[in-house]
Amino acid sequence: MDKIIAGAVGSFISCYVCTMLITGRLLYRQEHLKIVNYIIILAAVPLLRIGGSFNIIYKIIYVISIYTIIINLIYKKGFIFSSIICVLAYSIGLLCDVINSFIYLTIFNIDIVYIKQHPYLTYSMYFTFFLIVLIISRFIRYGNLFDEIEDFIFKKNLFSAIQYISFFVLFTVILAYIISVQPYLSKQHLLSTALLVLFIIMNITYFIQIKISTKSKYDYDNIYNYTNEVEKLAKQLSAQEHEYKNRLIGIEALVENKQYDDSLEFINDILSVQNKKVNLNLTNYDNIYDVILKKLLIEKTARALGEGIKINTDIRTQIKDINVPNIVLNDIVSIIFDNAIDASSKSKERIIDIMIDEDEDEINIIIANTYSKIIEEVVIYHDWYFSKGIFKGNGLSILKQIEKDNLNIIIDTSITEDLFIQEINIFNAKETI
C-alpha cells in the first residue's frame, strides 16, 4: 500500500513538473494559480500508474502522450504544438531526475535500489527532485519565444510538423531508454546524459533560430509594405500636384477676366462644398475681419458641427491685421483645426474650444480639443511621428517648420488629462503681408 501511495505521489509530482512547472516557464504562463489544472493532473495519475507496467520504451511514449494531452488541456495550444513543448519539458525533467539520482549516489552514497525499498527515502527523493526542477526552472526566461515558434509551426505543412515531432519524440525515447537501462555512473550512462544535455541545447538553439528567422521575415515584410506605401503615396502626390496646378491655371484665368462668381463656383466645385445645415449662430466670427482666418474658421466649424462635434468659441476682440503671409496663416489654422477635428471625433466628449485675442503686441489663437488617448509631447513634432497612420501625421512637423521659418510665430503645445491644446502666438500684429 505504501508503494502504491508513493508511486501515485511520484506520478503527480512528475506530471506537475513537466506539464505546469517547466511548461509554464517555457510559455511564460502562470497556470499553477488555477485549481482546475491540479484537478486535471490528479485525474491523470491513475492513467500514468497504468503505464508503470509497460515496457520502458512504450512507457515513455505513453507518458509523453498523456503529458501532451494535459498540456493541450491546460494551455489550449493544439496537439501539435503541445507535443513539441512536451518533448522539451520532458527532456528537462528527465535531466533533473538524472541530476537527482547523481546526488544521492555520489554525495549521499545511497543506492537507488535501496531507496526504492524504503518509502521515506522515496519521498525524500521526490522532494529533492522537485527542488532541483524548481531551481533550474528559474533560469528559463524565454518570454514570447514560443509564440513565434507556434506561428512558424502552423505556417508549415502538417506532414513537416509531424516529421519534426516524430524525430524528437523518438530521439527522446531512445535517450531515456539508454539512461534508464544502463548502470548508474557507467560510461554509457554518462554519455547518454551528455547527449540529453546536447539534445536540450540543440532544441533551444533551434527555437531561437526560428525566432530570428521569423523576426527577419516580419521585418522584411514591414519594409516591403512600407516601400509600397511610399511608392503609392509618391505617385498620388505627383498626380495631385499636376491636377492642382491645372486647376489653379483655370482659377487664375477666371480672376484675370474678372469672372469672380465663376471663379468662386470653380473653387467650390474643387472643394466639393455642400450646403450644410449647421448652426453657426453660437459663434462670433463677425469680430474677425481677416478674410482668410474668418473663412477658414467658418468652413472648419461647419465640418466639425457636421460630424457632431461641439464648438465653443470666444473671440474677445476684433481681429483685423495679422502679421504673417496669407499662405502661412492658412496652413497653420488648417493643420491645427483638422487635427483637432480628427482627434475630438474619436473621443467621448467630442469638443473643440477656440479662443482668439489681440492686443498691441500680439494675436493669440488657441485651439483645444478632447482626445481619446494621451499623445507624447516629446515626439509630437517628430518627422516620423504618424498619429493617424502612415504619412498622415506630417502636418505637425510642418507646423514646427513654419515656426522655425517665421521668427514672429510661436506655437506652444500642451496636454492636460482632458484636452490637447495648441496656442499660436503671432507678434507685432500689423497689416497682412
Automatic annotation (TrEMBL):
What's in the keyword line of the UniProt record? Membrane, Transmembrane, Transmembrane helix
- Which N-terminal stretch is annotated as signal sequence? none
State the Gene Ontology terms under molecular function: identical protein binding
Q: Is tRNA processing found in the keyword set?
A: no
Regions crossing the membrane: 6-28, 35-50, 56-75, 87-108, 120-140, 161-184, 190-208
**Name the UniProt record assigns to this protein:** GHKL domain-containing protein
Which source organism? Sedimentibacter hydroxybenzoicus DSM 7310
